[in-house]
Amino acid sequence: MIAAAAWVCLLAPLVGVLAIALSGNRLSRRAAGYLATSSTAVAFAAAIVAFALTLSHAAGNRRTTTTAFSWIETHALNVKLDLFVDPLSLVMMLVVSGVGTLIVAYSIGYMDGEDEERRYFAYIAFFVFSMLLLVEAANFLVLLVGWGLVGLSSYLLIGFWQDRPSAIAAAKKAFVMNAIGDAAMVLAIFLLIQHAGTLDFVPVFANAGLLGMNTWVVNIIAASLLVGAVAKSAQIPLHTWLPDAMEGPTPVSALIHAATMVTAGVYLIVRTHPLFEQAPHVQQTVAGIGAVTLLATGAIALVQTDIKRVIAYSTMSQIGYMFLAAGIGAYGAAMFHLVTHAFFKALLFLAAGVVIHALGGEQDMRKMGGLRKRMPRTFIAMLIGAGALAGLPPLAGFFSKDAIVALAFSGGVYDKMLFAAALVGVLLTALYSFRMLFLVFSGEESKETHKQLAKHRGGEGPGWMMWPVAVLALLALVGGWLQIPGAWHLFSDFLGRGGSLAVTREWLLSAVSVAVALGGVWITWTIYSARTQKAPRAPKALVEKLYFDRAYDLLFYRPAVLLAHRLASLFEQQVIERSVEEVGTGALRGGRVAAAIQNGLARSYVLLVAAGASLVLLLFLIFR
Amino acid sequence: MLGPGIAWYLAAGSAVFAIGMAGVMLRRNPLIMLLSLELMLNGANLVLIAFARRHGSLDGQVFALAVMAVAAAEVVVGLGLVVAMARRKIEIDADLLSRLRK
Amino acid sequence: MSAGNILVWIVWFAAAVGCIGSALAVVAFRNALFSALALIGNLISLAVFYLLLSAEFVAAAQVLIYAGAVMVMFLFVIAYVGWDKDIAWTGGPSWQTLGGVVAAAALLTELLVVIALGASNELAHSNHVSADFGSPASIGRLFMSNHLLAFEVISVVLLVAAIGGVILGAQKRRDRKGVKR
């Protein structure tokens, strides 16, 4: 039964994609939206069924593998197309399909009237399918397939508005950077085949110890997996694609670049944690990357003027937290933060989408302001989102983020440094999230917003947009209550990965981080809301996004373009094009010669017959 | 059999045939072309008769008679065409009649 | 070499010279009339060959029908059309002349090679034939028995040719109002 539910969960969105794709114009645009939403809803229902059935099993017996068919069957390697349902994958399935359904429903309102709506819904359903394939995979190869398909969906959706060159460029950038990660993953897979002899999760992880501790094999495997995760989750140094990916429609940013795809890296690390535990240095690097990212991107978020970019940098920062948690072995905390982050980040994106939609496409926060009066419900939604993001109790983010902060404190020197970074990150988070909130909603309406809102005829947004926002706001409100320190640990119990501190210590640390967060809120309130202080000037380095884009441009992009141009002019045109041209003109010349035979003269035809006959006779003579 | 063997007759017949073929390919006057065509047919007839003698079977001679009859019929039609062309004052030149439509 | 043999060889050579020479003449003459007359010569030489090959009826038919009727028809048409026309001897695309000669020569060479190859084996001996080989009676008997179908088909062909000739030669008739039909 669990197996059936797993398959339904996986395949329902695929059915949706095929139905939309094959119906083409016969399907109305709205109907495509309904179809996509219902297919993801079916997936969610199936995920719930699987969840309930798995819960009914005893705690140690919660793994199910189901096979479709045998894919590769050789002497050396045996890979099947199978799905693996265990608590970890169930968590991801529920998040992907649940939040996915809400966002696809939201898209019905957001993308209303768009010419290519059907294509959008097909793509987004395809993404849900790919992501489910990734999380339900039972072996590395199926995971890689899902990984690649998710990258493809991301490319298709970022570049959805094909007539915008910036969107196309952003899609290419995302795909290329993801490709780096894919290559690294393949390397890891090769090594696993060679040294573990199998790619199935269960045996690989059970026998991870056989790979040795800190041997070069396991180090490279773990490092390669890390590179893949870094690329997919947009951590430093492979992070520059995510802000550009905001060129895609806002629901896409919500689903792919906040809630699900970018968290695939975290999922990967948590899933393969036995391998990481065999390579402790790599695992420490994981945490280090997380810490660096959360600081750097949090700082950059402070100076962003585009509302979606603030949220994008915030995503990278929060995933940094998850990496940090995974790096110190707090897998349960990492996954918990993944879940709550999905809620409030999607909420923030969707609420921002409502604002953007109401203002006719305006995304520059400097042109916004005073929207609180006109859009009260959106304001509340965003307030909940920002608060959850900053980690204010009793919202969801408080429980998940503070768990990470607290666990970081309990380690050695390195871990204490991580703790410091995490705490600074809390301040930064509060600063940028409330800066965004106040810039958009408080103060006076600017002239442009006034004009836009007047055009909008009041009303915050269509029902299809507002209801998912409401649901997500509720989840952001109460989602954290799954895991209250001292009371219960539903989440980590389910995952089977405990790890908790003494209760009082945890509450003390929480108090510290909440205080820090509130401090950040107060600072932004004075600057942006009450206007009692002037905003400090943004440092150039932050505005330039710490020069990463510039560096990559100089180091990689320009040489590649130069090389391509050289090759094109020297080789492609001279050699290849010419030879192809020769074939064409040669064919024409030959045709002209052949056409001369058809001159209409009877005598020439006789000549041809005679010539042919003598030739045949000659051949007969030769080959008697 | 007295005289030359069959091979000689065959050679002569082939020579006549080849000369006739050259005539068809080389001359532009349709009348001459028809005459060359007759040459080819006659060359083939000679070959047929020679083989009939070789095998002692009269079928070759019967075949040759049939060829003669068909050649006569074909000449009738060909000459009729030439006469029709002349009547309409069309140039009697095979090369100028290169388009089947006209 | 008996006297009969020598005689046959001499006759053969004479007929061969006449045959090939007249063939060349047919192709070479500019004047259509001369070509026709050369063809008549060719036909007569061939008739001699047929006689040497014991095909008496065919030889007679050749002279009577071919040289007698068909060629007369040719001469009539040549007389009607005219023979001193200013038609080029040959022409057409540049490769036509050379190609024609080459193709004919090649074919002739190949045929001669085939004949030469077989000259020592299959073509060496001829069967003995009876006295009435090639007589009208025997040929008539064949036409009426084995080759009856061919006989009938030939008559149809001749009929068709005759009708074709009439149609091709027909004048356009004008009815009373002078409108061409």
Give a short overview.
Chain A is mainly alpha-helical and 624 residues long. Helices cover 74% and strands 4% of the residues of chain A.
Structure overview:
The complex is a heterotrimer of chains A (624), B (102) and C (181). Helices cover 74% and strands 4% of the residues of chain A. With 624 residues, chain A is mainly alpha-helical. In chain A, the strands form two sheets. Chain A has a two-stranded antiparallel ribbon with strand order 1-2. Chain A is globular and about 105 Å long. Chain B is an all-alpha fold and 102 residues long. Chain B contains three helices and no strands. With 181 residues, chain C is mostly helical. Chain C folds into three domains: 1-86, Four Helix Bundle (Hemerythrin (Met), subunit A); 95-123; 133-170. Chain C is built from six helices and no strands. The termini of chain C are far apart. The mean pLDDT of chain C is 85. Chains in contact: A-B, A-C, B-C. Chains B and C meet through helix 1, helix 2 and helix 3 of B and helix 1, helix 2, helix 3, helix 4 and helix 5 of C.
Spell out the key features of this protein.
heterotrimer, A: 624 residues, mainly alpha, two-stranded antiparallel sheet, 74% helix, globular, C: 181 residues, 3 domains
> How many distinct domains of chain B?
1
- Low-confidence stretches of chain C are none
What is the rounded Rg of chain B? 17 Å
Examine the secondary-structure arrangement and name the CATH architecture of chain B: Orthogonal Bundle
* The level-1 CATH class of chain B: Mainly Alpha
List the helices and strands and how they pair.
The complex is a heterotrimer of chains A (624), B (102) and C (181).
Chain A: H1 2-23, H2 29-55, E1 64-73, E2 78-85, H3 87-110, H4 117-136, H5 140-158, H6 165-196, H7 201-206, H8 216-233, H9 241-244, H10 250-259, H11 264-271, H12 273-277, H13 280-302, H14 307-327, H15 331-358, H16 371-374, H17 376-390, H18 396-409, H19 413-441, H20 447-456, H21 463-478, E3 483-484, E4 488-489, H22 490-495, H23 503-529, H24 540-543, H25 548-597, H26 602-622
Antiparallel strand pairs in A: 1-2, 3-4
Helix pairs in contact in A: 1-2, 1-4, 2-3, 2-4, 3-4, 3-10, 3-15, 3-21, 4-5, 5-6, 6-8, 8-11, 8-13, 10-15, 13-14, 13-19, 14-15, 14-18, 14-19, 15-17, 15-18, 15-21, 17-19, 17-21, 18-19, 18-23, 19-23
Chain B: H1 6-26, H2 30-55, H3 59-87
Helix pairs in contact in B: 1-2, 2-3
Chain C: H1 3-28, H2 32-52, H3 56-81, H4 94-119, H5 136-144, H6 148-169
Helix pairs in contact in C: 1-2, 2-3
